[in-house]
């Protein structure tokens, strides 16, 4: 399972199938489950549509269990899906006419939320519950969200005893509640989970006082725009790509259905969660880009880059042409300006020596790709460890000619390195992961340690610490260290 390495890990647990909640428990009738509560937000139509956010994208999609609240904001949702008790509850509210809504993709609806509390009754949806749900969107438990929100309130002189979700309409929280709802209405970006998570984490850092006064529209819009800027600079988590389950009945083949004897498997959680008997997941959201950086149709046969729509990162596409500098298996020596100078013997074994060009190190390669403005970008660089690990698709089943499953989603990354055979794991490409917590009394002076990430077959996601030589190593007394290909990354909007 992919570790939680960057912000925005949306992994609220969905409860398994089965159990009982209806009066008819016969084999021919599925049990039903009910979740009810009240919309108590200020300045919204209480007769709002309320839904159980099964796919956790923080909007009410067609087919998700829902109902319409009455004039008092009271709602009740019934479904055969037990997960309605544990996923976020959303109230769909009209954003109204806002002067700042300049994006053509801006929705006329916003969604205030409440975390799934496993409560059949007594659920409450307002601005304060939305803050708790925002912490949940960032992978934080309700208990941890309570503690974080209490700490934020304490800085502004408000002390809440007990759990905040039990006192969401407290009078001392009224102004904060109103301001949070106003800010959610002002969001322009469709990545609602990220925006809500950032609002929860940073409302107390706004120049405007969210807690003790009612904000003007200008103050609300300014902070919403600030959070939009945070989105452009962030790297959010994808899921693992795993959508199938291990079965104790047939351990030679994964199955599509959750296994009651093995609960809590990876496929039951997060973006990868699918409905029974389907073979689709939403662990990754990629788009193909042409040479100018424009989005292509998803079935385009040729593309130059891939946009990770969840993280905002753009990834270089490789080729299968050995004469291209962007060939998937072109080997480079590591060079990070101001940090690592290239080692002579690694440069001598780079692909440039057999191709007769000058692109021998990772920095040479960065400069070349920037010089051609690939996909209209000139800020290409090596990815960080976290950025590349976030790209791994542990559910990919396509294999290379050696029968090794690919580590990246094949549909968007068909040309992946075959790797070299003298490292711990195969399929590695360079990242910026120099580490300083590794020690060996046999380490070479001028060398350093580096985290290699395996990307093929059973090595997908495994990490090995390698000693890499820099230009400070005496090449007369040592052989080469390592050479890997590189897959560069750029930030959308930069």
Structure description:
- The chain has 494 residues and is an alpha+beta fold.
- It has 3 domains: 33-232, no CATH class; 238-273, no CATH class; 284-494, no CATH class.
- Helices cover 18% and strands 13% of the residues.
- The strands form 4 sheets. A 4-stranded antiparallel β-sheet has the order 3-2-5-6.
- A hairpin with a 4-residue loop joins strand 9 (305-308) and strand 10 (313-316).
- Helix 1 (127-137) packs across helix 3 (174-186) and helix 4 (192-202) crosses helix 5.
Q: Please, how many helices?
A: 9
Name the overall outline. Answer: elongated
Low-confidence stretches: 1-27, 97-106, 275-279
Q: Please tally the β strands and state the result.
A: 14
What are its keywords?
494 residues; alpha+beta; four-stranded antiparallel sheet; disordered N terminus
Topology of this protein?
Blueprint: E1 33-39, E2 49-52, E3 66-68, E4 74-79, E5 89-94, E6 109-114, E7 123-125, H1 127-137, H2 142-155, H3 174-186, H4 192-202, H5 217-232, E8 286-289, E9 305-308, E10 313-316, H6 344-348, H7 352-355, H8 362-371, H9 385-389, E11 434-435, E12 447-453, E13 463-469, E14 489-491
Parallel strand pairs: 1-7
Antiparallel strand pairs: 1-4, 2-3, 2-5, 5-6, 8-9, 9-10, 10-14, 11-12, 12-13
Briefly, what is this?
18% of the residues lie in helices and 13% in strands. The chain is α+β, with helices and mostly antiparallel strands. Strand 9 and strand 10 (313-316) form a beta hairpin.
């Amino acid at each position: 399972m992919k570790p939680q390495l960057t912000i925005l890990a949306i992994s609220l647990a969905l409860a398994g199938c089965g159990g009982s909640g209806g009066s008819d428990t016969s084999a021919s009738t599925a049990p039903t489950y009910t979740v009810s509560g009240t919309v108590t937000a200020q300045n919204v139509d209480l007769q709002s549509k309320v839904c159980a956010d099964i796919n956790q994208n923080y909007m009410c999609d067609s087919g998700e269990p829902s109902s319409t609240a009455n004039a008092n904001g009271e709602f009740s949702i019934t479904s055969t899906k037990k997960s309605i008790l544990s996923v976020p509850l959303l109230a769909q509210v009209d954003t109204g006419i806002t002067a700042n809504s300049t994006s053509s993709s801006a929705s006329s609806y916003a969604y205030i939320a409440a975390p799934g509390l496993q409560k059949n009754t007594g659920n409450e949806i307002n601005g304060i519950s939305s803050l708790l749900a925002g912490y949940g969107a960032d992978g934080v438990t309700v208990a941890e969200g309570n503690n974080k929100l209490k700490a934020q309130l304490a800085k502004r002189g408000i002390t809440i005893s007990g759990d905040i979700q039990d006192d969401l309409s407290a009078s001392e929280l009224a102004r904060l509640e109103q301001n949070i709802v106003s800010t959610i209405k002002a969001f322009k970006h469709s990545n609602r989970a990220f925006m809500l998570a950032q609002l929860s984490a940073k409302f107390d850092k706004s120049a405007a006082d969210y807690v003790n006064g009612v904000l003007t529209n200008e103050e609300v819009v300014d902070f919403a725009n600030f959070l939009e800027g945070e989105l452009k600079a962030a790297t959010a988590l994808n899921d693992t790509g795993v959508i199938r389950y291990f079965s104790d009945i047939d351990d030679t083949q994964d199955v599509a259905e959750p296994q009651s004897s093995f609960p809590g498997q990876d496929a039951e959680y997060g973006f990868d969660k699918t409905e029974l008997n389907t073979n689709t997941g939403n662990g990754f959201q990629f788009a193909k880009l042409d040479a100018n950086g424009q989005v292509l149709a998803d079935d385009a046969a040729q593309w130059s880059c891939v946009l990770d729509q969840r993280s905002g990162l753009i990834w270089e596409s490789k080729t299968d042409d050995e004469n291209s500098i962007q060939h998937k298996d072109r080997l480079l020596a590591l060079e990070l300006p101001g940090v690592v100078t290239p080692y002579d013997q690694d440069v001598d074994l780079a692909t440039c020596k057999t191709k007769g060009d000058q692109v021998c190190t990772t920095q040479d390669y960065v400069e070349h790709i920037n010089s051609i403005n690939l996909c209209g970008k000139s800020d290409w660089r090596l990815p960080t460890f976290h950025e590349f690990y976030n790209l791994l698709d542990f559910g990919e089943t396509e294999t290379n000619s050696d029968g090794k499953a690919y580590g990246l989603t094949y549909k968007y990354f068909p040309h992946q390195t075959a790797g070299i055979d003298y490292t711990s794991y195969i399929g590695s490409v360079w990242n910026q992961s120099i580490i300083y917590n590794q020690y060996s009394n046999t380490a070479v002076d001028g060398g350093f340690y580096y985290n290699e990430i395996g990307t093929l077959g059973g090595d997908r996601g495994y990490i090995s610490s390698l000693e890499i030589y820099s230009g400070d190593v005496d090449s007369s007394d040592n052989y080469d260290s390592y050479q890997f290909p590189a897959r560069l990354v750029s930030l959308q909007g930069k």
